[in-house]
Amino acid sequence: xxxxxxxxxxxxxxxxxxxxxxxxQMQGVITTAGGAVDKMEKWGKRRLAYRVEKHREGxxxxxxxxxxxxxVKELERRLRVTDAVIKFLTVRIDEALKRLEKKKKHRExxxxxxxxxxxxxxxxxxxxxxxxxxxxxR
Amino acid sequence: xxxxxGRPGSASQRPTGGDKAVLTGKKQYxxxxxxxxxxxxxxxxxxxxxxxxxxAFVAERGKIVPRRISGVCGPxxxxxxxxxxxxxxxxxxxxxxxx
Lengths: 138, 99
Known about the structure:
The complex is a heterodimer. By secondary structure, chain A is an alpha+beta fold.
C-alpha cells in the first residue's frame, strides 16, 4: 500500500452538486478498489496560472488516499473521462513522508543531545584546572 | 587557563564567517555570504502546494531562480525545482508569465 495525493481541477461553471458528485465518485473508485481515503480538501475556486481549456479559473479538490498502484491507474482513467475535470495531478507521498519523519527524528535527537551536552563541558574545564594547578606549583 | 585560550583577541580581529572579502581587479568589497533559506529556517518539506513560498523562487517571467542568485543549497534546489515543476503542471504556477 502506498500513500498518494490527488489534486484535480473542476470546471468553474460546475454547480456544487456536480462537484460533490464527482468527489463522491472518485472516493468510490478508491474504496471499491480496496483503498482508503485519508483526507479530502476543497480548496474552492482559484485563479489558474494559465488558461486551461479556455478557463481562467478552476475549482481545486485535494484527496489523500492509501492504496495500491492499480487504483491510481483506474482513478486517473476516470478523471480523464470525466468532462468536468480539466486537470489532475497524482503524487506519491509516502516516501517523502518517510524522509520527513526521519529528518524530524534526527532533529529531535540532536536537540536532545545538545540539551544534555550543555552542562558537560563544565567538567573538563574543572579537570583542566586541577591538572593545571600542579604545573603551576612546580 | 591562559594557555588554553591561545592568542588573545585574534578571533575578534578576524572577519566573521558571514562576511567574505571578494577581490575583483583593484576594488575590494565585502559581499554577504548567501545561505540556504530552507536549511536556516529548517523547512524540511518543500511542498508543491505552497504557492506563496514557491513564488519567492520564481522570477517575474515564471523562470526558476538559479541558486547562484537565490543562495539555495544543492539538495534543496533540487527539491525546490521539482516542486515548482509540479505546481506548474497543475496550474498553480505559470510556465511562462506574460508581463
